[in-house]
Amino acid sequence: MDNTHNSQPGEAAPLIPIGHFFGDPSASSFSISPDGSYVSWLAPIKNPQGQSRMNVFVRPVAAPDSVPVQATFETERSIHGYAWANASRIIYVRDDGGDENFHIYACNPDGSNTVPLTPFDGVRAGIVDMLHEVPDDILVSMNKRDRRFFDVFRMNIITGEHELVAENPGNILGWITDHEGKVRAALAGDGVNRSLLYRNSEHEPFTAIATTNFRDTLVPLQFTFDNKQLYVSSNRGRNTQGVYLFDPATGLETECIYANDEYDTEAISLSRKRKVLLEVRYTSWKNERVIFDDDQRRLYAKVSAQLPAGCEISFIDYDDNEENYIVGMYSDVHSGTYYHYNTLTDSLTLLAQVRPELNPDDLAPMKPVSYTSRDGLTIHGYLTLPKNAAPANLPVIVFPHGGPWVRDDWGFDGRVQFLVNRGYGVLQMNYRGSTGYGRAFWEASFRQWGRTMQDDITDAVTWLIDQGIADARRVAILGGSYGGYAVLAGLTFTPDVYACGIDIVGVSNLFTFRKTIPEYWKPLNDMTNEMIGDPVADEELLRAVSPVFHVHRITAPLLVFQGAKDPRVNIEESNQIVSALRGRGIDVEYIVKEDEGHGFHNEENKVEMYGIIERFLKKHLG
After folding, report:
1. CATH for 360-620?
2. Which residues are annotated as catalytic?
3. pTM score, whole prediction
4. 384-407: per-residue pLDDT in tens?
5. Domain coordinates of the chain in residue numbers?
6. What are the pLDDT digits (tens) for 419-460?
7. Distance (Å, rounded) from C-alpha 334 to C-alpha 336?
8. CB–CB of 344/302 below 8 Å?
């Protein structure tokens, strides 16, 4: 770690270079081979143009000082993700310039025998099951037959040969395999209703065993180890989602494993070796876990005893014998550290720090806060203030998340730490519709783009000013995707609130946004009509909340970023708002990258973007 300067109590943190926050990490995404012999990770290489791209590296667990072997050689686009298919074969995925049509590749750990498994133009592929019990096969989903629908194929990872396992009749949203790798359950939707489908074997047709409105959650998580029941996340009969055992024979939840009255519980962990449920997880202001297994409880205790207090730990990967683990440690001021833990020797070995150039002493804590919306809802969020600065009369950036049906949570966020290091306070809020807080809070967002959802963001500004934290004349709004829409809506519908705005791939026109979504989103149209608004029946509403139709109200400076290949928020969303403003004689700074999609991911583009953001904020906030 670079400790050339430690900020002292009462002293402002040193100015940290942009690249420390947004350059590719020195190492990330560690994994371990199924036999425990090899450790792997992503690390940057330079392509012929001198640009950084993340690739897979491998070395033996028993030889920590050996020279790593480069297993992949991607130079156009960083690898999006990878995994061990078996002890001698690695699977990885990447797209082309941000188009999100992910292709799957396979290679040997020494970099040989690289095969493109899904070399089909315009097709998006994904992993359904790694088939741990079948050495050379995986299950993948592809919309190869029809761009709207994803079928399941069994694919050989040596040759790429594949055969259809389950054909999507047009309503399947997701597939579930049992512990033998058989496609036995699926989640179907007709737009506003969801059905859980089930079959006893792959030779039988699927049958709907439970049907709900999409507002009722019944999501299959995994099969029980006897392959007879399912673990599900369900909110049937309650406000928040809990984890239940579910009996396909009756179509009912039979036993509540865990439920929390304030927060949704949506994730579980199982031990494949010992065939037991280990834990369930949910998010309050931070990640929480409820452990059911004594061995798992002892494992956390042993690892935690060897790591600093105040940090979160997670078991990211482990081998088939559950003897070798990849442990991740992070906090709001620690970008992340990876360790190898061996259960037989109780030894914890440092693998790498994600960003060793960042000194935690120079970074600022992310504090949970809450405020009350104008109509009485409790809105939770996170406030991060400049290191050692008095929390009074500060320039502040309001930073609504994208989605919108996701949420912010506690942990390291390089974007936030960069802004705070430049002297700005940052408030992230989980406005109504943010997930994890139960059904009622989620449903409160329906048909509320630009209305009460936006009010929650505006109320955050009011709260900051009332608390004396923010200088009312120096509040900016920054966001991406739905957060970018919130930027445009904020500048349009509350023009006196913000000194400036920064929109990253944001929606400006809800009519054109709905027309240009990817084909594979279109089966969800009826549900989206209920959640956002029907372009025909709710034309007046959508026109009223689409910023592009009200640009005459925008007076604050605006900075816009857009990826040319964005499949979710088409480039015309940004083109429209920029053209409309420039048509009124308003100068808008507009940056388009031809090699990006939904957000900027290439290192050189991220560093450039935040350099532009830094100059923009300095000019308009001071």
Report:
1. 3.40.50.1820
2. 481, 566, 598
3. 0.94
4. 999 988 999 999 999 999 999 999
5. 360-620
6. 999 999 999 999 999 999 999 999 999 999 999 999 999 999
7. 5
8. no
